[in-house]
Amino acid sequence: MMETVLKSHYDEQHPHQAEDFHGKHEQNSKLSAGIKKDIEKLYEAVPQLVNVFKIKEKIGEGTFSSVYLATAQLQTGYEEKMALKHLIPTSHPLRIAAELQCLTVAGGQDNVMGVKYCFRKNDHVVIVMPYLEHESFLDILNSLSFEEVREYMFNLFKALRRIHHFGIVHRDVKPSNFLYNRQLKEYALVDFGLAQGTPDTKIELLKTASSEDEQEDSIHHSVQRSVFGERNFNVYSSTYQENSSTKLIKQSKMIDVSSRKLVTKKKIISTKTVSNGAARKAVSGCPSNLTCDCYATDKVCSVCLSRCQQVAPRAGTPGFRAPEVLTKCPTQTTAIDMWSAGIVFLSLLSGRYPFYKASDDLTALAQIMTVRGSRETIQAAKTFGKSVLCTQVVPAQNLRTLCEKLRGTNSSCKRSQGEVLSKSLNDSALPVAVDKQCAPETLGKQTQHLKSFQEGDGALEMKATDMKGWDQVPDEAYDLLDKLLDLNPATRITAKEALLHPFFKDMRL
Ligand code: ADP
Ligand code: MG
Ligand code: ZN
To answer: Of 190, 313, 329, 336, whose CB has the highest number of CB atoms within 10 Å?
Structure first.
């Protein structure tokens, strides 16, 4: 039935394309009825598209948009691939305009996605961008060579330097927003849907979209974007699909007790933040003096969860949020994107993604403490006016030791003691004390015992002779990681500085 509707639609408008759609492009027969219907609806909502594009498939679906792959017939006869981002019709017009302005002003250069056209009919807006075919991060994470990781980070910093230069804070830096074509070595930072301006931003529309927008924003983002909140329709992606309705439930304020076990089964930490001084006073309508029953337990009680929260920009994905975002520091700078880049780097070095799996901000903060130290986190929070309470002291970890342990490149140390590495980091995978360094000699021997890694369609043998550079990660890598994961935004490394870091010494700017 849907088939016929779709076909007749094409027949009226573009007979030759209809043929194309059902003939040459066989993958379209694999389109699910739901996606066909979405495509059909999009043509109806924005009829101008019909004359220009052949929409082929859905490549992304998030909370705020759906993205489609389409082709446009150029006058030369060449078919160009494009990405069509259909924003949800309830998006605030200012928000849409701001997203578009980020792309038009800062985009098209230095690994920042550009824009080709924009179509609108009533409240439906479609942003047309060049299409960049890209990998699913999770699928390639464990097959990347160390050199590829270095290039990836370099190119991410290039993109961040550019947008930060324009006074854009992206606020949602994560792998699904940084497209990576491994073969072509092409990169593109996308998705300015949550972007905000610095006080001196060069993006006019980001100047207005702050204070007035925030209240609405915080409501808007109570449906948080998360790593799990996006379905990836990528051709390359095979894993990690979850039903979106279950995700929305997860993202709401439900406490998953298991995800709060941070260090070991017995050692559980819980955190709370309070604003210092004046900011602490309660705002009308919020419970301010209810008795809390979660202090010194492994839970965040409903009283604490419903506590009035300071209005501050609060967006992005919990696991990628900087400590100043998690504690709702009202002044947030481009440094928050650098923290997120640090989390991406941490995933790449450790081979774990997502690295932090938190459903709420306090859990995310507790997870940061398990890597960066609780005292250190509390100390840093003081510098931006937040006092953090933590029921337990956890030490900071050595980043190299942590990453090597998780990646399995120094398996000799702990496994011989009978310790089992857990796969997910929300549980007991974050070791409390891993300061014991492995002697380099034992590391060399251990590499021969590495198991095979799954990669794409087949298994790839990781031999001692082909460690893809992972047996020689220089100290500079961990020095840069340390500077990205600086708990204090004021001293955190900037994108410009990161590009000049010794880690990238031989790379061209
Ligand atoms: P959302 O705001 O819904 O997260 P994004 O702009 O991040 O929307 O796009 C969602 C997904 O669509 C991306 O993660 C990516 O997989 C795909 N996508 C977006 N833009 C492009 C593009 N220009 N080329 C190829 N794929 C794209
Ligand atoms: Mg996105
Ligand atoms: Zn409580």
So the answer is: 336
Rounded-to-integer distance, Cα 337 and Cα 162, Å: 12
Q: Are 326 and 160 in contact (CB under 8 A)?
A: no
Question: How does pLDDT run across 184-197, given as a tens digit for each residue?
Answer: 999 999 999 999 99
pLDDT tens-digit readout, 416-459: 333 333 333 443 334 332 222 332 322 233 333 223 333 334 44
Q: Which residues pair with 68 in a beta bridge?
A: 58, 84
How do 453-455 and 458-460 pair as beta strands? Answer: antiparallel
DSSP code, position 112 = B
User: Do 44 and 38 form a contact (C-beta atoms < 8 A)?
Assistant: no
| Full domain range(s) for residue 115 | 33-130
Check which CATH number belongs to the domain holding 54 and give it: 3.30.200.20
Contact yes or no for 376/396 (Cβ under 8 A): yes
Residue 380 CB contacts under 8 Å (≥ 6 apart), including other chains: 323, 487, 488
Name which residue sits closest to atom 14 of ligand 1, judged by CA: 176
The torsion defined by the Cα of 306, 307, 308 and 312, in degrees rounded to 10, comes to -90
Model-level pTM? 0.73
Same domain, 114 and 253: no
Q: To test ligand 1's pocket by mutation, which of 85, 136, 224, 232 has the most ligand atoms within 8 angstroms of CB?
A: 85
318 with 449, same domain: the answer is: yes
Structural domain count, the chain = 2
Residue-wise pLDDT for 47-76, tens only, equals 999 999 999 999 999 889 999 999 998 888
With a 6 Å cutoff on the Cβ, whether 113 touches ligand 1 is: yes
If you average pLDDT over residues 246-265, what whole number do you get?
31
Give the CA diameter of the chain.
72
Coil, helix or strand at residue 332: coil
CA distance readout (Å), 103 to 115, 192, 438: 6, 8, 47
Q: Does the Cβ of 498 fall within 6 Å of ligand 1? A: no
Q: Are 40 and 2 in contact (CB under 8 A)?
A: yes
CA distance 424 to 452: 19
Ligand 1: distance of its center to the CA of 262 in Å? 32
**Nearest residue to 352 via CA among 416, 402, 294:** 402
Instruction: Give the orientation angle of helix 33-45 with respect to helix 2-13, to 10 degrees.
Output: 40
